[in-house]
Each structure stands twice: as structure tokens, then as C-alpha cells.
Amino acid sequence: MQPDLSLEAVIPLVAPCLFGLVSGFNDGGNLLASFTSGRVIAPPMAAVLLLFCLAGPLVIGTAVARTIGTNVIDLRGQGELGYVLIVLSPLTVVLMSWRFGIPTSMTLALVGGMLGWVLASGGRSAVHWAGVARVLVGMPVSVLGGGLLALALYWAIRRFLGTHAHAAMLQIARLQLLTAAVQAFAYGANDMEKSVGLIAVGMSFSNQHQQVAFSRPLPIIGAFGFFYVGALVGGWRVASRIGFGVLKVRPMQALAQQFASGTVVAVLAVAGAPVSMTQTIDGGLVGVGAAQRASSVRWGIVRELLFSWLLTLPLAVAVAAALHFAVRLFGMAP
Fold it and tell me: What is the distance between the alpha carbons of residues 317 and 113, in angstroms, rounded to a whole number?
């Protein structure tokens, strides 16, 4: 069978590809900042380590992609136009946040876009609240879990290795090559799967008689490709801006944070809970800072991040609802 290359089949694929590209700018920048923050991993090696993202969905599976595609709302059931505008809603919120220099969560923006569109249509019953709860519970669990695990790891490092010579500690810090790979793997298994789910749904519009295939290679490779390009093109700008915003990181602190955030995000990926690696990284940074002393954490920036995350969901709901009302006003809604 020849692939459908009509405009109706292509447009639903453009929006998720843009989402993947913007994820590369935003999330890729945060990952690159995390990799290089301990000054052990050089930028070229950090770019290579991002390749481990591709292994995440291939090894752990696509439970997060399925949550995004069907378990919050039925994305395909909104039709091509609704689907495209739902995906454009979080992109609008993220780009607005960039314009004003406010960090945001693409996870909350995407879920907010879904909720805003469906609730504006009066379809409250179309919301799978168990899926929404999975997101809203998973987010604070990832931040707290990443923070507590990073605190425990860095406390143990200081307790049992604190008397080692500086040269020996630097040798141990080279394990960041492993912990950064774990972090990239976990990102691929969780955050990147949002793009996997969106691309899989977008591809399904050309054949409504088949179920959405979340685990097929093409959505996974496509999501990774756009993420990787976005990270290499725009991620370094984000990395240079936020790399040392929350905490001035020492090599062993970076190691503890990377392992903690990667482990927590990977575990939540198995449970199909979409979370934010960026938020979990920040939780880990606060944890290693608190293990040293509370004054080493820039709590003002932490409060700013928390405020922006709380703002993301309602703002995305409002943007998606406004888009829905606009298409109804012009008689374009189904």
C-alpha cells in the first residue's frame, strides 16, 4: 500500500515534530547543562551521551507514550484539527515562557492543552481522570524522590569518601560518564515518549481502521531525531543560561544528582507516569545542596521555578480553550 502523502495526512505530523524539536531546545538544554555542570564531561561528549535517549523506549517500553496518546484523553478522537491545535497549545505556552524568561514544564503544558480543549467542548466525560492523576501525582513524586535520593547519595559520598585525596575523588567523579548515560536513557524512556505518543497518534490519522501503534520504530526514531536536532541547534543556549542557576555544582554533586534523577524518572516511566526530567534535575540539585548546607542552594530561583510550574497548567488550559472557542466561532469545530 502506498503511503498517504495528502495534506490532511501530513499536517497532523508537523505539529508533533515541532513539539519534538522544541523539546530538544528546552529539555535537551537542561540535559546538556546537567551533563556538563560537574566540569568532568566536555560539551562534545555531552552531545554523544544524548544518543542514549534512543535506548530508553526500546528497552523500557512505551507506557508513557500510551498515557499521553490515550490515557489522559483520546487524542485521535478529537479529529485532525483538534489534535493539531492541542499540540500547538503547549508549544505556545513554552514559547511565551521563553519570551519572558520563565522556565516551564512541557509535560504540564501538554496535559493542560488536552484538558483545556476537551473541557471547552463540554466533554468532561472524555477526560480519563486516572491518567490525569498519574501525571499530577508523578510530578511531585519525581521532584521529591530525585531530591531525597540525591541527598542520600551525596551524604553517603561525603560520609564514606570525604577523606580521600582530591585526585582520587576526581577519578571517582569520572563515573559521571555512566550516570549521565543513565540520565539520558531515563529521559528517552519518559520525557521523549511524549513526542513518541504524539507522532504515533499523528501517523494514525491516515488509517483510522488501525489502532495507534506506539511501539513501532518510526515514532520512536522520529521523536529522537527531532529532539536530538533541537538539542544540538538550540539546547546549548538554554544550557548556558540555566546550567548553574540552582546550585554551583561540584563533580561529586553532579554525579549524585544525575544518578538520582535518572533512576527516579526511569522507574516512573515503567509505571507509565509522564514526568519532567528538568524538574527532577532541579529536585536533585536541591537535594545535594541540602546535603552540604542549606545556604548553598539559591532558594529564590527555586521559588521562581515552582511558581512557573504552577502557572504552566492553567495557562495551557486557557490557551487550548481559547483556540477551541476560536474554531467554533469560525465554524471549524467538528
Answer: 5
- List of E strands, 163-321: none
Q: Write the DSSP string, 277-307.
A: HHHHHHHHHHHHHHHH-GGGS-HHHHHHHHH
Query: Where are the extended beta strands (E) located within the chain?
Result: none
**Using one digit for the tens of pLDDT, what is the confidence trace for 79-116?**
999 999 999 999 999 888 877 777 678 899 999 999 99
Length of the chain: 334
Q: Is 149 exposed, middle or buried (0-12, 13-18, 19+ CB in 10 A)?
A: buried
Q: Are 120 and 324 in contact (CB under 8 A)?
A: yes
94 alpha carbon, distance to own chain's centre: 12
The answer to whether 112 and 312 are in contact (CB under 8 A) is yes
CB-CB neighbours of 136 under 10 Å: 15
Residue tagged 532541579 (cell numbers): 282
Cell reading at 147: 531530591
CA-based R_g, the chain, Å: 20
- Categorize the per-residue pLDDT at 262 as very low, low, confident or very high, splitting at 50, 70 and 90: very high
DSSP 1-57: -----SHHHHHHHHHHHHHHHHHIIIIIHHHHHHHHTTSSS-HHHHHHHGGGGGHHH
Q: How far apart are CA 330 and CA 328, in angstroms?
A: 5
> Angle of helix 277-292 relative to helix 299-329, nearest 10 degrees?
170
Q: Which three cell numbers stand for residue 186?
A: 531515563
